[in-house]
Specification:
The complex is a heterodimer of chains A (111) and B (113). Chain A is 0% helix and 55% strand. Chain A contains no helices and eleven strands. Chain A has strands at 4-5, 10-14, 19-25, 32-38, 45-51, 56-59, 62-67, 72-77, 86-93, 99-101, 105-110. In chain A, strands 2, 4, 5, 9, 10 and 11 form a six-stranded mixed β-sheet that branches. A five-stranded antiparallel β-sheet of chain A has the order 1-3-8-7-6, with no helix packed on it. By secondary structure, chain B is mostly beta strands. Helix content of chain B is 0%, strand content 53%. Chain B is built from no helices and eleven strands. In chain B, the strands form two sheets. In chain B, strands 2, 4, 5, 6, 9, 10 and 11 form a seven-stranded mixed β-sheet that branches. Chain B has a four-stranded antiparallel β-sheet with strand order 1-3-8-7, with no helix packed on it. Classes of the chains: A mainly beta (111), B mainly beta (113). The interface between A and B is medium-sized, with 22 and 24 residues.
Chain lengths: 111, 113
């Protein structure tokens, strides 16, 4: 049973436009969410996080939005760059402290 | 600071063999977690070690085991390898058990033939 779901396996956007990656979760008790980016042959790298006491967190071109009532979070990348092409994972901590990942969304930014 | 290192980077084994993977966390980090990444299942948590003790365990069979040494380095062992164990095995470290941000190594790509 997937507790964290990324329903879009892939996304393609044009350079300079906005990329929106989505993530849904099932447990309303989850209170901290992270986004990781992964290039081929490398481990995931931490991108941005958000606590459930906030509904938005911004870091440069990256903004994460949290909608607790819908149990949904999204990552916005503006403007998108070709170097952003990677697999993006959303993640959260289970009630036992395990980090749970979504299946990932492959983002392709076309020049 | 050096990042998380994992050895070996690539490994080919045959069914029934056993394998040991190694992870050196970032200096000062005491928590080490292991994950398995496969195309079908995504990233799945294996276990977490903190101060040489297993703090958390995922839903994997007993063939998967690990340990952590006093210098925080960790090893993961898989016995009686199966074809389905072919995956990227990732190690992550964090400054303390339950730390919010984990830093990942490059992974060990295991192929079981």
């Amino acid at each position: 049973d997937q507790q964290v779901k990324q329903n879009s396996p892939s996304l393609s956007v044009q350079e300079g436009r906005i990329s929106i990656l989505n993530c849904d979760y099932t447990n309303s008790m989850f209170d901290y969410f992270l986004w990781y980016k992964k290039y081929p042959a490398e481990g995931p790298t931490f991108l941005i996080s958000i606590s459930s006491i906030k509904d938005k967190n911004e870091d440069g071109r990256f903004t994460v939005f949290l909608n607790k009532s819908a149990k949904h979070l999204s990552l916005h990348i503006v403007p998108s760059q070709p170097g952003d092409s990677a697999v993006y994972f959303c993640a959260t901590f289970s009630n036992t402290g395990k980090l749970i990942f979504g299946q990932g969304t492959t983002l392709q930014v076309k020049p | 600071k050096a990042g998380v290192t994992q050895t070996p980077r690539y490994l080919i084994k045959t069914r029934g063999q056993q394998v040991t993977l190694s992870c050196s966390p970032i200096s000062g980090h005491r928590s080490v977690s292991w994950y398995q990444q496969t195309p079908g299942q995504g990233l799945q948590f294996l276990f977490e070690y903190f101060s040489e003790t297993q703090r958390n365990k995922g839903n994997f069979p007993g063939r998967f085991s690990g340990r952590q040494f006093s210098n925080s380095r960790s090893e993961m062992n898989v016995s009686t390898l199966e074809l389905g164990d072919s995956a990227l095995y990732l190690c992550a470290s964090s400054p303390e058990g339950g730390g919010k941000t984990q830093y990942f190594g490059p992974g060990t790509r295991l192929l079981v033939l």
